[in-house]
Amino acid sequence: MTRRAFTLIESLAVVALLAIAMSTLAVGVAPSVEAAKLRDARSAVLDTDARARVLARGGSVIRLTLGDDAVWAHAAGDPQATPLVHRSLPAGTAVSIRATASDQPRSGVRIGADGRSEDYVLAITAGGRVSETLVAGLTGYAFERRVTEIGGRP
Description:
Number of strands: 9
Structural class: alpha+beta
Strand order of the largest sheet: 5-4-7-8-9
Distance between the termini: 63 Å
Order of helices and strands: HEEEEEEEEE
Mean pLDDT: 84
Shape: elongated
Helix content: 25-40%
Strand content: 25-35%
Protein backbone atom coordinates (compact mmCIF):
# COMPACT_ATOMS: atom_id res chain seq x y z
CA MET A 1 0.00 0.00 0.00
CA THR A 2 1.38 3.37 -1.03
CA ARG A 3 0.92 6.49 0.99
CA ARG A 4 0.22 9.61 -0.92
CA ALA A 5 1.17 12.97 0.63
CA PHE A 6 -0.37 16.36 -0.12
CA THR A 7 1.34 18.23 -2.89
CA LEU A 8 2.55 21.79 -2.48
CA ILE A 9 -0.25 23.06 -4.74
CA GLU A 10 -2.92 21.35 -2.63
CA SER A 11 -1.44 22.73 0.57
CA LEU A 12 -1.31 26.27 -0.87
CA ALA A 13 -4.93 25.98 -2.00
CA VAL A 14 -6.04 25.01 1.51
CA VAL A 15 -4.06 27.90 3.05
CA ALA A 16 -5.59 30.33 0.53
CA LEU A 17 -9.12 29.11 1.30
CA LEU A 18 -8.50 29.46 5.04
CA ALA A 19 -7.14 32.99 4.53
CA ILE A 20 -10.25 33.98 2.57
CA ALA A 21 -12.52 32.50 5.24
CA MET A 22 -10.65 34.28 8.05
CA SER A 23 -10.71 37.66 6.29
CA THR A 24 -14.46 37.31 5.74
CA LEU A 25 -14.92 36.49 9.41
CA ALA A 26 -12.74 39.43 10.50
CA VAL A 27 -14.76 41.88 8.41
CA GLY A 28 -17.97 40.59 10.00
CA VAL A 29 -16.68 40.59 13.58
CA ALA A 30 -14.94 44.00 13.65
CA PRO A 31 -18.14 46.09 13.87
CA SER A 32 -19.48 44.01 16.74
CA VAL A 33 -16.20 44.43 18.66
CA GLU A 34 -16.43 48.21 18.28
CA ALA A 35 -20.10 48.18 19.29
CA ALA A 36 -19.16 46.20 22.41
CA LYS A 37 -16.48 48.78 23.27
CA LEU A 38 -19.07 51.55 22.94
CA ARG A 39 -21.50 49.69 25.23
CA ASP A 40 -18.79 48.90 27.80
CA ALA A 41 -17.54 52.51 27.94
CA ARG A 42 -21.11 53.84 28.21
CA SER A 43 -21.88 51.35 30.95
CA ALA A 44 -18.73 52.29 32.91
CA VAL A 45 -19.52 56.01 32.85
CA LEU A 46 -23.23 55.61 33.61
CA ASP A 47 -22.51 53.17 36.44
CA THR A 48 -20.04 55.61 37.97
CA ASP A 49 -22.61 58.40 37.55
CA ALA A 50 -25.29 56.33 39.33
CA ARG A 51 -22.97 55.41 42.19
CA ALA A 52 -21.84 59.04 42.54
CA ARG A 53 -25.49 60.17 42.78
CA VAL A 54 -26.14 57.67 45.58
CA LEU A 55 -23.04 58.87 47.46
CA ALA A 56 -24.02 62.51 46.94
CA ARG A 57 -27.46 61.94 48.45
CA GLY A 58 -25.63 61.18 51.68
CA GLY A 59 -24.86 64.90 51.95
CA SER A 60 -21.66 65.22 49.93
CA VAL A 61 -20.91 67.04 46.71
CA ILE A 62 -19.33 64.59 44.26
CA ARG A 63 -17.39 65.28 41.07
CA LEU A 64 -17.57 62.79 38.18
CA THR A 65 -14.34 63.09 36.20
CA LEU A 66 -13.14 61.52 32.95
CA GLY A 67 -9.56 60.53 32.24
CA ASP A 68 -7.91 58.99 29.19
CA ASP A 69 -8.54 55.45 30.36
CA ALA A 70 -10.86 55.71 33.37
CA VAL A 71 -13.79 57.50 34.96
CA TRP A 72 -14.00 58.19 38.66
CA ALA A 73 -16.02 59.98 41.29
CA HIS A 74 -14.44 61.81 44.20
CA ALA A 75 -15.37 64.40 46.79
CA ALA A 76 -15.74 67.67 44.88
CA GLY A 77 -13.52 69.66 47.23
CA ASP A 78 -10.55 67.30 47.06
CA PRO A 79 -9.71 65.93 43.58
CA GLN A 80 -6.40 64.54 44.89
CA ALA A 81 -8.14 62.23 47.38
CA THR A 82 -8.62 58.55 46.67
CA PRO A 83 -11.57 58.16 44.29
CA LEU A 84 -14.79 56.94 45.85
CA VAL A 85 -15.66 55.11 42.61
CA HIS A 86 -13.23 54.17 39.83
CA ARG A 87 -14.02 52.35 36.58
CA SER A 88 -11.63 51.59 33.73
CA LEU A 89 -12.64 52.36 30.16
CA PRO A 90 -12.08 49.88 27.32
CA ALA A 91 -8.89 50.33 25.31
CA GLY A 92 -9.42 52.16 22.05
CA THR A 93 -12.27 54.36 23.26
CA ALA A 94 -12.37 58.11 23.69
CA VAL A 95 -14.96 59.52 26.08
CA SER A 96 -16.01 63.15 26.53
CA ILE A 97 -18.72 65.13 28.27
CA ARG A 98 -20.43 68.23 26.85
CA ALA A 99 -22.89 70.63 28.39
CA THR A 100 -26.25 70.45 26.63
CA ALA A 101 -26.95 74.17 26.64
CA SER A 102 -23.64 75.40 25.25
CA ASP A 103 -22.29 72.17 23.69
CA GLN A 104 -18.93 73.03 25.29
CA PRO A 105 -16.63 70.17 26.34
CA ARG A 106 -16.21 69.63 30.08
CA SER A 107 -13.73 67.71 32.18
CA GLY A 108 -16.43 66.37 34.46
CA VAL A 109 -19.79 66.86 36.12
CA ARG A 110 -20.60 68.22 39.58
CA ILE A 111 -23.27 66.24 41.42
CA GLY A 112 -24.86 68.17 44.27
CA ALA A 113 -25.72 66.90 47.74
CA ASP A 114 -29.25 66.24 46.49
CA GLY A 115 -27.94 63.82 43.82
CA ARG A 116 -28.65 66.19 40.94
CA SER A 117 -26.42 67.59 38.24
CA GLU A 118 -26.92 69.59 35.09
CA ASP A 119 -27.93 67.68 31.97
CA TYR A 120 -24.97 66.55 29.88
CA VAL A 121 -24.11 64.68 26.70
CA LEU A 122 -21.80 61.69 26.98
CA ALA A 123 -19.94 61.13 23.69
CA ILE A 124 -17.98 57.92 23.11
CA THR A 125 -15.83 57.18 20.08
CA ALA A 126 -14.53 53.72 19.17
CA GLY A 127 -13.28 52.47 15.83
CA GLY A 128 -14.94 55.08 13.65
CA ARG A 129 -18.29 54.98 15.49
CA VAL A 130 -19.61 57.69 17.78
CA SER A 131 -22.30 57.11 20.39
CA GLU A 132 -23.96 60.08 22.07
CA THR A 133 -26.10 59.74 25.16
CA LEU A 134 -28.09 62.50 26.83
CA VAL A 135 -27.96 62.13 30.62
CA ALA A 136 -30.72 63.84 32.58
CA GLY A 137 -29.25 65.72 35.52
CA LEU A 138 -32.33 65.38 37.68
CA THR A 139 -32.31 61.56 37.73
CA GLY A 140 -29.23 60.38 35.86
CA TYR A 141 -31.47 58.62 33.33
CA ALA A 142 -29.68 58.09 30.00
CA PHE A 143 -31.31 58.65 26.62
CA GLU A 144 -29.35 57.31 23.66
CA ARG A 145 -29.33 60.09 21.09
CA ARG A 146 -27.53 58.51 18.18
CA VAL A 147 -24.81 56.15 17.05
CA THR A 148 -23.14 57.20 13.81
CA GLU A 149 -20.13 56.34 11.74
CA ILE A 150 -17.51 59.08 11.62
CA GLY A 151 -18.29 60.98 8.49
CA GLY A 152 -21.99 61.27 9.25
CA ARG A 153 -23.30 57.93 8.01
CA PRO A 154 -25.77 56.20 10.37
